[in-house]
């Protein structure tokens, strides 16, 4: 096989490994809580479309499907059809207490965040972190006018507590209108607050404070647990901000990627990291998996039909009103959501094709 073909094959394999780890973590969350609450799992599958292979163990069928675009944990009676026919057993999903069902659905996104935190622990323990310490202040910049200097540690921006250099960069990049930034920094044990009006750069089309932030910290054990949480939180905030920008039109469809786009990203990262050895490749793949796991957790919590967040909304309504929404009505809502989700996946797939090929 030509060298280029080998590289692409490796990238596809790396993507599939990341995909399986992230999706299986999500579905395992549903699975383990369902078992804990006495709910029968009819099928546990990864991927979508026709099954490549499957096997039965106990009450559950385990399947691997053709297309790497998701997965599911199917519970007995969750579609409402068995309830209408009176064919549900005592282990059916609708027969479980409402909070047991809520916990079972919520466990999927929760396990994604737990996986992300575990991966952040690995990255922080091996690589350390980039702090919010100012490394340099550009001469004549707005930051210099405000009195900032190298060695200052930024602790808040616009009232938001920050811990990482990436947070400083993110807040600066999101300030697309050049609004004033209220910056709190620590110097010699004292905290000071200044207001900086970023200057516009014609070349890049962005507003800059005029600082370089990002000191290095090799974390001890307590700091590793602490900064792993900050790292996961940063990825979550970046994901939420990206969703807001997508909804408000600040991001276009070209900024959205599906499986093909993710393979391309993995390929580019692998190509950059392989020269530094297998460990560097592994750490970069863990970083991608961390981001995807956080993304999957947040996306599934959106209160949209067919997603976990949509199901949680129905369960909350049931808990408040003391009785469930009629299964056929809930089923119609989720079916419509699933159709819309499938159409979106198709559009993203073709967008990837036109974008990269």
TrEMBL record:
UniProt xrefs under SUPFAM superfamilies:
PDZ domain-like
Task: Name the Enzyme Commission number(s) assigned to this protein.
Answer: 3.4.24.-
**Cofactor or coenzyme needed:** Zn(2+)
Q: Which GO molecular function, any one, fits this protein according to its record?
A: metal ion binding
Q: Does the keyword Metal-binding feature in the UniProt annotation?
A: yes
- Write out the GO cellular component annotations: membrane
Q: Which UniProt keywords apply?
A: Hydrolase, Membrane, Metal-binding, Metalloprotease, Protease, Transmembrane, Transmembrane helix, Zinc
- Compartments, record wording: Membrane
Give the way it sits in the membrane: Multi-pass membrane protein
Homology family: Belongs to the peptidase M50B family.
Recorded protein name is Zinc metalloprotease
């Amino acid at each position: 096989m030509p060298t280029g073909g080998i590289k692409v094959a490796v990238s596809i394999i790396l993507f599939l490994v990341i995909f399986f780890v992230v999706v299986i973590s999500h579905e395992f969350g549903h699975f383990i809580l369902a078992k804990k609450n006495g709910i029968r799992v009819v099928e546990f599958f990864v991927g979508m479309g026709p099954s490549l292979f499957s096997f039965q163990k106990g009450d559950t069928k385990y399947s691997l499907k053709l297309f790497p675009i998701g997965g599911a944990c199917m519970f007995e009676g969750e579609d409402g059809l068995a309830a209408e026919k009176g064919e549900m057993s005592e282990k059916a999903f609708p027969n479980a207490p409402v909070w047991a069902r809520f916990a079972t659905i919520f466990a999927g996104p929760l396990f994604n965040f737990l996986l992300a935190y575990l991966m952040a622990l690995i990255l922080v323990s091996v690589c350390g972190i980039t702090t919010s310490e100012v490394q340099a202040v550009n001469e004549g910049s707005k930051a210099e006018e405000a009195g900032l200097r190298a060695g200052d540690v930024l602790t808040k921006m616009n009232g938001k507590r920050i811990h990482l250099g990436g947070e400083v960069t993110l807040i600066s990049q999101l300030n697309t209108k050049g609004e004033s930034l209220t910056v709190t920094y620590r110097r010699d044990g004292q905290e000071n607050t200044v207001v900086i009006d970023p200057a516009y750069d014609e070349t890049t089309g962005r507003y800059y404070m005029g600082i370089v932030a990002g000191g290095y910290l090799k974390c001890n054990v307590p700091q590793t647990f602490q900064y792993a949480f900050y790292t996961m939180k940063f990825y979550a905030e970046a994901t939420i901000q990206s969703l807001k920008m997508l909804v408000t039109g600040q991001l276009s469809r070209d900024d959205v990627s599906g499986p093909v786009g993710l393979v391309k990203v993995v390929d580019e990262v692998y190509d950059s990291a392989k020269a530094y050895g297998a460990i560097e490749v592994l750490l970069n793949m863990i970083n991608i998996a961390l981001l995807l796991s956080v993304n999957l957790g947040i996306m599934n919590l959106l209160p949209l039909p067919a997603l976990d967040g949509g199901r949680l909304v129905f369960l909350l309504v049931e808990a408040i009103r003391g009785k469930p929404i009629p299964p056929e009505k809930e089923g119609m809502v989720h079916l419509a959501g699933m159709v819309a989700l499938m159409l979106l996946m198709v559009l993203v797939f073709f967008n990837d094709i036109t974008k990269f090929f």
